[in-house]
Amino acid sequence: MTSPAQIVILGASGDLTLKKLMPALVGAARAGKRAFSVVGVSRSELDDDAFRARVADALDDDARAAFGDLAPRVHYQPADVSDEASLRALSERLDELAGGEEVGRLFYLALKPELFAPAVSALSDVGLLPRGCGREGAFRRLVIEKPFGSDLASARRLNAELHALLDEDQIFRIDHYLGKETVQNLLGFRFHNAIFEPLWSRHHVELVQITVAEDIAVEKGRAAFYDGTGAVRDVVQNHMLQVLALVAMEPPVSLAPEAIRDQKVQVLRALRAPDREDILRHSVRGQYTAGEVGGREARAYLDEEGVPEGSTTETYAAVRASIDTWRWSGVPFLLRHGKRLRKKYTEVQVQFRTPPLQLFNRPEGMDDAEFSRRLRDGSLCQIRPNVLTLSIQPREAISLSFGVKRPGAAMVMSPARLDFDYRDAFDAKSAPAYERLILDALAGDATLFLRADEIEASWAFADALLDGWAAADAPLAPYPAGSDGPDAADALFEGCEGGWSRG
Ligand SMILES: NC(=O)c1ccc[n+]([C@@H]2O[C@H](COP(=O)([O-])OP(=O)(O)OC[C@H]3O[C@@H](n4cnc5c(N)ncnc54)[C@H](OP(=O)(O)O)[C@@H]3O)[C@@H](O)[C@H]2O)c1
Fold it and tell me: Is the pTM of this model over 0.85?
């Protein structure tokens, strides 16, 4: 164990802290890899005991039972990030805690995005967050939540504001998707198993599709935030593009954070939204109407509490994107995310090209000449047997489909699959994403955090899509809650490319 650290959560009385961060910290304390204390900060007038009681109330039974060990090291200090005197009092309080000024401090901004820059500036003014302390020992690091900006211009501005006060190695921009075991396995799977690398390019891959489907509605109390955000900014720009970057990046030369992030940013920079003239053909924006989810009636987005009347915010986005690199030129990347869909799943499907000639499974009654002609002119689609499916959540699995000869006199090929499921292979349950990421930030490992240029490249893509929609006055396609999204999204597949996975 290295020296204990202080984790200072600004926004400690909020939803994220109570629902995600404190359970993660209880888990991290239980894992015992790193000693730390926690100091919750917000304007609410609480003391240590009252804060501990709030935390305990919000934990599930298992975590509550484990909280006893961490609780004595959980403290609370009321402070307002716009009030210097209260931040000075916070500084004194931190100095009084075990280790004082000599220990590393992680400042976690669980505040509204508008407060990110003012909070960093205020912490810096009172000397809590000096520049140049990213490394081990008495480090001073910042973890910053999403959303990081709302477009390229605001993300650039926020990066500039942060860089005016801190070094990049002090800044840990979080995307909790990167804390997921199966997302990290995208790297492991691709760059450990050499058999796939020769196939992983336009020469052998016909199409890649990525789905982040949610069955839940816009969360209670977050409708106002969501309505100003929409599906592209909420999920596509961040979680989905991170998955895409790991699927499409070039091999890194090492596992050093910069080696990996350098390759991810190259892909993100080469990612293209559809051109203006193709935007309506190659993307769909949708919004859910009333329907049924899991056998229960589900109301329309417009009827959700807090959604402004007549809102045209998209709760669904699908896009046929491309990556202009030697590896991926000409391979469509179909991305799809929506709320209130049939089921919750995140999945990547890599669809491999077909053999140059289809020899098998000629339909009965069709002669060879007609079979070849119809395959050539596209009125009959060749069977696409080889698909690699990387299931990220809730199923954590990998499967490869292929064709096998059906027993019998005729040469008929049937679909078959090789399946791997994490639950069958490993007993250990993987640590929740936030637990892993907070421990990494304490250790100064930025591999699973977003660098300034990655965020900006992702926003450039999101802006191009959103600006394209605005310029084309893209219609809002309705889809019933509990469905697979608007039918219009099926048309993003061309010719014999197939269709969306069903998860
Ligand atoms: N909730 C989630 O599941 C979730 C998921 C992903 C990302 N995020 C991001 O995480 C951040 C926090 O979200 P949240 O849902 O937890 O928001 P929230 O429930 O509104 O909490 C905001 C917190 O900030 C505190 N606060 C507000 N003004 C302050 C000030 N001037 N000085 C000090 N503290 C102040 C509030 O407490 P007082 O009123 O007592 O000061 C509260 O503790 C946001 O950036 C959000 O986008 C949240």
Answer: yes
